[in-house]
From TrEMBL:
rRNA-binding listed as a keyword: no
Pfam families: Glyco_hydro_2, Glyco_hydro_2_C, Glyco_hydro_2_N
Signal peptide: 1-24
Function (record text): Plays an important role in the degradation of dermatan and keratan sulfates.
SUBUNIT field: Homotetramer.
This protein's UniProt keywords: Glycosidase, Hydrolase, Lysosome, Signal
GO CC terms of this entry: extracellular space
Organism annotation: Hyalella azteca
Reactions accelerated catalytically: a beta-D-glucuronoside + H2O = D-glucuronate + an alcohol
Family: Belongs to the glycosyl hydrolase 2 family.
Residues covered by the Glycosyl hydrolases family 2 sugar binding domain: 85-268
Molecular-function GO terms, alphabetical: beta-glucuronidase activity; carbohydrate binding
Full protein name: Beta-glucuronidase
Domain Glycoside hydrolase family 2 immunoglobulin-like beta-sandwich: 271-369
Length: 688
């Protein structure tokens, strides 16, 4: 048994901060004996939120920085015998900092009292993107700081029992500072991953309301992931003084705000910090429980109980680290690979005091499965996998990227209706609640980082990117649905610097999790790309007859086959198509097929289907097909987008376009093992 004791560094540091502000000197934090860099936002200056660009006023002074606090977001807050969760979701107060005075909220200390006392506020839904909930163009297109606040009460028993009190925000895009009762508790850079604030020392007695303030910034620069750029329009004959825009070249709207649930929760002072599980297909389950012991506490011990889906106990072990064997294991299988896909056990970890009393308890869902990959492809539980999937977005009307459980249920219902067995979290990590559903429904996930359309490659970005990968892996490492880590989407990997960049980020990811292949969705030519050598399997995005040879549907099959064969021959690694597609305006019909019509989208899919079948019948190890996109989604305004990207096989409100029926026909045929799955669509192949 390995006892992991953490020096209660964060707490001590926090205490110091509460007594007096700390000048910027941010030591590293010892966690489980490993030295971690302190909070990335606090690397000695404040510029990681609104970066070097001198035209944007500095927003925070070093002395105002929150205390150094290493956070990976923590285990998802759950009610257990020893923990309690309260939702803080609802309607909060909200105000924008003026675009031309981003510093205002910090200068006027809007966090020190309710926002409503320092000016006008509007109602804001949490979780939701703020952009589309009003009729205000300035709110939709805002660039800079936005301020949220609400009140919460701390349950009396948490305080009486001396519990830790934490606030966890599932995702705040892009960066945020979290205040409780006017004190900056933590800050986080990077949307799509959780933000954890230990507010134990900041909360008031139980009969007094606490003010929770969150300052959110959506500015993207060359050092953020994803990248963007603040561009100044300096010709004052054409633009007002100081005019700037947020430039970004990825193809989805840069929605911002508090995107996922905000939960207040308690844990005991000694608590389970992390659980790691690695399984195989014979019922063997290796586990590690990492806990943090409160100052002065020794002699804690761990135990593990495993329950089947009916919550009957199937195994027990008294150890913090070890191996359990489950007899008659029910394996985790993807949808349509087994009559009972997505079978999950519950592993309940406990830590106990020397007298045997329970200190903390935390359950995770576990799927028993073995994943392997190599020159012959990817297999699960010894059976070869063929990926029938799509790229998606977290995107919907009004909410933008805000979490919505009804939408999650609808999307999984549609994925299964299509016969899909996988999706890629294009182009950022999705909500944990979505990932839970993927585990439970048996839908495999290629788990992608927010590194979309990387434009430059240097050491600063590589270390930010590596940090994001570590946070992502730590959040999702126990999920049976996750079959691969995707480092990036469409990096400009023709640049020479991409070689060492991808080698580094790939190595960091493999170190964090050696049990899954590392990949990326590539868009460069097979000859110019420099990322593939560092990847285990190769996915490429290809838009033949859409972005190249537009209108020439007759070329799709040949071009896809030639291209994928070249990648395979060069690297001898499994290859697949992670994106292909065409925009289709719902209701636009043109026969013979013409770009933007529903017929064109259908024909383009049929051309790709034919190519995939040819590849499957060839010597190429072709591991799967993923169309773009599941549903129409919002983008920034542009002449190439009509009310957003229309490449969905469903509309944005999740209604079917005709192509969805072609996909359903093919995917269900593929799942049942038909060799020519597209044959049933033959009547539609009128052209060419
Ligand atoms: C791509 C990108 C995706 C875009 C898509 C398109 O290659 O990966 O983000 O939305 O093309 O529709 O242009």
């Amino acid at each position: 048994m390995k006892l992991f004791i953490v020096i209660f560094f964060c707490l001590v540091y926090q205490l110091k901060y509460l007594c007096n502000s700390v000048e910027a000197s941010f030591p590293s934090v010892l966690i489980n004996g490993v030295e971690h860099e302190t909070f990335p936002i606090s690397r000695g200056d404040e510029t990681r939120i609104l970066r070097e660009d001198a035209r944007i006023p500095k927003t925070r002074r070093n002395k105002e920085l929150p205390p150094a606090q290493y956070t990976w977001g923590g285990l998802y807050p759950r009610d257990t015998a020893t923990r309690e969760v309260k939702s803080l979701d609802g309607i909060w107060n909200f105000r924008l900092s003026p675009k031309d005075d981003p510093d205002k909220g910090f200068r006027e200390e809007w966090y020190s009292a309710p926002l409503a006392s320092s000016g006008d506020v509007i109602a804001m839904a949490v979780p939701s993107s703020y952009n589309d909930v009003t009729q205000d163009k300035d709110l939709r297109d805002h660039v800079g700081w936005a301020w949220y606040d609400t009140f919460f009460m701390t349950p009396r028993r948490w305080l009486e029992d001396g519990e830790r009190v934490l606030v966890r925000l599932g995702s705040v895009h892009y960066s945020c500072v979290v205040y409780v009762n006017g004190v900056a508790i933590t800050a986080h850079e990077g949307g799509h991953l959780p933000v954890l604030a230990d507010v134990t020392l900041a909360v008031k007695p139980a009969d007094q309301a606490n003010l929770l303030t969150v300052a959110v910034n959506n500015v993207l620069t060359n050092e953020t992931i994803p990248q963007g750029e603040i561009q100044y329009k300096t010709d004052e004959t054409m633009y007002p003084p100081g005019y700037f825009i947020q430039y970004y070249d990825f193809d989805f709207f840069n929605y911002a705000g508090i995107h996922r649930p905000v939960l207040l929760y308690s844990t005991p002072q000694s608590y389970i910090d992390d659980i790691t599980v690695v399984t195989d297909a014979t019922g063997v389950l290796n586990f590690t429980i990492d806990y943090v012991a409160a100052a002065g506490v020794t002699d804690l011990s761990c135990s593990v109980d495993v329950f089947d889906a009916n919550m009957s106990s199937v195994a027990h072990a008294d150890a913090c680290q070890g191996t359990i064997t489950i007899s008659n294991p029910q394996l985790w299988w993807p949808y349509l690979m087994d009559p009972k896909p997505g079978y999950l056990y519950t592993l309940r970890a406990s830590i106990k005091a020397a007298d045997g009393s329970l200190v903390d308890q935390y359950p995770i869902r576990v799927g028993l499965r073995a994943l392997s990959w190599g020159a012959t492809g990817i297999s699960l539980n010894g059976k070869p996998l063929y990926i029938r999937g799509c790229g998606k977005h977290e995107d919907s009307d009004i909410r933008g990227k805000g979490f919505d459980p009804a939408l999650v249920v609808k999307d999984f219902s549609l994925l299964k209706w299509l016969g899909a067995n996988a999706f890629r979290t294009s182009h950022y990590p999705y909500a944990e609640e979505i990932m839970d559903q993927a585990d439970a429904e048996g839908i495999m996930v290629i788990d992608e980082s927010p590194a979309v359309n990387l434009r430059t490659f240097d050491e600063t970005l590589a270390s930010r990117h590596s940090e994001v990968m570590r946070e992502l892996v730590r959040r999702d490492k126990n999920r049976p649905a996750v079959i691969s880590w995707s480092l990036a989407n469409e990096p400009r990997s023709y640049q020479a610097a991409a070689t060492s960049y991808f080698a580094e980020v790939s190595a960091v990811t493999k170190l964090a999790d050696p049990t899954r292949p590392v990949t990326s969705a590539l868009s460069q030519d097979f000859n110019s790309d420099n990322a593939a050598p560092s990847l285990d399997v190769i996915w490429v995005n290809r838009y033949y007859s859409w972005y190249s040879d537009t209108g020439h549907l007759e070329l799709v099959q040949q071009q896809v086959v030639t291209d994928l064969t070249r990648w395979y021959n060069k690297y001898n690694k499994p290859v697949g198509v992670s994106e292909y597609g065409a925009d289709a305006v719902p209701g636009l019909h043109m026969d013979p097929a013409y770009t933007w019509s529903e017929e064109y989208q259908m024909q383009l899919f049929l051309g790709n289907f034919a190519a995939f079948d040819e590849l499957r019948g060839s010597s190429v190890v072709f591991m799967g097909e993923m169309f773009w996109n599941f549903a129409d989604f919002m983008t920034q305004q542009g002449t190439g987008r009509a009310g957003g990207n229309k490449k969905g096989v469903f509309t944005r409100s999740r209604q079917p376009k005709p192509t969805s029926f072609l996909v359903r026909d093919r995917y269900l045929n593929l799942a049942s093992g038909k060799q020519s799955p597209q044959e049933s669509c033959r009547w539609f192949k009128s052209t060419p």
